[in-house]
Amino acid sequence: MKIRNPGQVVSWCLFDFANSSYSAVIAAVIFPVYFVSVIAGNATGQGDLWWGRAISVSMAFVAITSPFLGGIADYSGRRKRLLVFYTL
Predict the structure, then answer these.
(1) pLDDT score of 8
(2) pTM to 2 decimal places
């Protein structure tokens, strides 16, 4: 594969780096603290418990269903449509 415009590749790499960093900071640091202290109220430590449960259930759901939905998407040829549906 021949790279026709190295500037586009560098631009895309910088965009991806910045986008990934922002998402990681918000999802891993800012939102959990906000959820635990503001939304759930952490007077008795229940906010941490509910945050952990929510993340555990969502990750288990993704881990169990992803292989099946990936196979369905590959077999049916509707990858983009199923990706949008699964993301939502």
Answers:
(1) 83
(2) 0.59
